[in-house]
Specification:
BirA Bifunctional Protein, domain 2; 211 residues; globular; five-stranded antiparallel β-sheet; alpha+beta
Length: 211
């Protein structure tokens, strides 16, 4: 099951990502989103291995923080999750991680929204250390999913998403394009958006950060 997920991860990252690491593994499903926990762990692993500061953007992007404090735009890693369903419901979740590591030549339109660890550092990155730090952080965060209903994970995700929460977003709904403010995430991993009509939960689809 992990092979098709890795293939899709490579395809998904092909247009915006650079040469890097792709890994997939299966975990037991829990109440709080595994995608949130994995995003935290990848950000922590990148920081520990390279010193780069990152931010999270719903649902599964790890971005490099901008020096001026603006809205992060350049993606350095992404996460894909796929549920394995059996007769009793969801049996496991396969999580795939793609991290842009190496330098590569790409058009300006891609350069505006993608980067790599080596491009940011200006030197070669230790891939073995990067993978080890990400997996170590994931193990810690996965254990925390069992504590207090995953409250530690939610708090950690909100902290790492400070640069993207509170921003104006738009998304496509049945009634057309809607706009609001990215306010929070809930325990299921849904993005909570504040609109003029009230709070809206977005569980899937593309959300565009516009300010």
């Amino acid at each position: 099951m992990s092979v098709p997920l890795i293939t899709r991860a490579r395809r998904a990252l092909r247009g915006v990502a650079l040469r890097g690491l792709v890994a997939a593994f299966a975990l037991l499903p829990l109440r709080v989103s595994l995608t949130l926990a994995t995003g935290i762990a990848v950000g922590e692993g990148i920081a520990a291995a390279s010193g780069l500061r990152t931010a999270l953007k719903w649902p599964n992007d790890v971005l490099v923080l901008e020096a001026g404090g603006g809205l992060p735009q350049r993606k350095v890693a992404g996460i894909l999750a796929e549920a394995g369903v059996g007769p009793g419901g969801v049996q496991h979740v396969v999580v795939g991680i793609g991290i842009n590591v190496a330098l590569a030549t790409h058009p300006p339109s891609v350069a505006a929204r993608a980067t790599s660890i080596e491009l940011e550092l200006g030197r070669r990155a230790d891939r073995g250390l990067l993978l080890a730090e990400c997996l170590s952080a994931l193990w810690v965060r996965y254990q925390q999913l069992h504590v207090d209903g995953g409250a530690l994970i939610l708090d950690a995700w909100r902290h790492r998403a400070q640069a993207t929460l509170g921003r104006t977003v738009e998304w496509d709904a049945n009634e057309g394009t809607r706009r609001g403010t990215a306010a929070d995430v809930d325990q299921s991993g849904a993005l909570v958006i504040r609109t003029a009509e009230g709070l809206v939960r977005v569980t899937a689809g593309e959300v565009r950060w516009i300010g």
